[in-house]
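Researcher: Please translate sequence to structure tokens.
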Amino acid sequence: MGTRSASTGISGSNRNFPVPNRTSENTNARAASEVQVAERFFLIGQEGAEEIGHPISSNVIGHIRTDKPLYKPNDVVFVEVYLINPTSKKPFLGQSTPVYRMMQVYDLDGLPIFETNATMAYGGTVAFTFKVPQNITGGEYNVVVKDTSLPMLMRKIRISQDPKLALFITATFDKKNYSPGMEVQ
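Model: Translation complete:
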């Protein structure tokens, strides 16, 4: 559970949230309510960090980009994750320490079929790749990228299962050469 301090804010684990320092009574009451909201968010975030996220979530917009919208079995999917500061419209630089991110791909029933990890370095981008299995069922799949301190991101991809048709066409001709306008039988 977080502890409250007038100078450092709410802290718990390795998280510090600033508490506004105001002097008048009206602003003190508002600051107290903001502390309660931040503390409530913090406690909920501890219980369900994957769904709720972290207060930094409101300051970051995440975007997942894939190299194409439709894949076939044995294709390699390239996934890029961008974090953007919505006020400056620039990449979210975050902390100087790398952030650990996890990517999962869920099937039609919501079961994970693939999982990998990567480190998001200072700069707000990270890339993942995975190979679509040969025996996968066609349909929509969810690519989910998450960690404990930033927003959970999700993107749908489609996987088609087109059977390769083997067509053999044989033709026999009654002449060696044909000219334009001649009829082939």
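Researcher: Any highlights?
Model: The chain is about 15% helix and 35% strand.
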